[in-house]
Design goal:
Layout (H helix, E strand, L loop, with lengths): L1 E5 L6 H12 L3 E3 H11 L5 H7 L6 H11 L9 E4 L5 H9 L6 E6 L2 H10 L1 E3 L5 E2 L14 E2 L6 H24 L3 E5 L4 H13 L2
Parallel strand pairs: 1-3, 1-4, 2-3, 4-8
Antiparallel strand pairs: 5-6, 5-7
Helix pairs in contact: 1-8, 4-5
The chain binds zinc ion (ZN).
């Protein structure tokens, strides 16, 4: 089962992706992680790093090359969850051209003022990757690891990411709606309730 996760930055794609991964035992393919991993290997002042911290999108072709390369791994034979990709129509069409069979597109819908608030307060565990939205928290409750703020979770970058999202990603909602693949989920409720709604949709496929 191959799934696409859609939603504004801060809509909860990371958290829900992990929940789906555990529930259905399929791995997540996060374009953000793939790009950050790639950027780590480059010099810190590289163009890619600059673009990521500025919240801009890396070129479609480049992202898809990295993602398709990642998907060659054996661990994805039972399916996967695409998080952060596709972000544009060009990327969506590349996926289709690559003959990837998508079972569902989970669209987590959250009002914009709420996603902004969430992203500004977001912290990630250095060790296990768990995401926190509580203010003042510095240590991971799950593993004791240190929490840090992602470089691209600053006010300017968020504004830019939301702009990019409106300009390019929203077109995907229409695209997948037309293909009858879009499953809209109410993301403005308790995390566990969002998960329940998603599991219900995926189990009924
Ligand atoms: Zn942790």
């Amino acid at each position: 089962m191959n799934i696409i996760l859609l939603g504004a930055p801060g809509a909860g794609k990371g958290v829900q992706g992990k929940a789906i991964a555990e529930h259905f035992n399929i791995p997540i393919v996060s374009s953000g992680d793939i790009l950050r991993e790639f950027a780590k290997k480059q010099s810190t002042d590289s163009k890619l790093n600059g673009e990521m911290q500025g919240g801009q999108l890396i070129s479609d072709k480049f992202v898809m090359e990295l993602v398709f390369n990642e998907l060659k791994s054996n661990k994805y034979t039972n399916g996967y969850i695409l998080d952060g990709v596709p972000r544009t129509l060009v990327q969506a069409k590349a996926i289709e051209k690559h003959n990837i069979n998508i079972a569902a597109v989970i669209y987590i819908n959250v009002p914009e003022d709420i996603v902004k608030e969430r992203v500004l307060h977001r912290k990630v565990c250095k060790s296990c990757g768990k995401i926190y939205n509580e203010e003042g928290k510095t240590i991971c409750a799950q593993c004791g690891g240190e929490l840090f703020k992602r470089n691209d979770d600053n006010e300017e970058a968020i504004k830019e990411r939301l702009n990019v999202y409106h300009k390019k990603t929203e077109a995907l909602i229409e695209y997948y709606k037309a293909k009858n693949l879009l499953k809209e989920i109410n993301g403005n409720q308790q995390i566990s309730d969002v998960s329940k709604e998603i599991f219900g949709v995926l189990e009924s496929l």
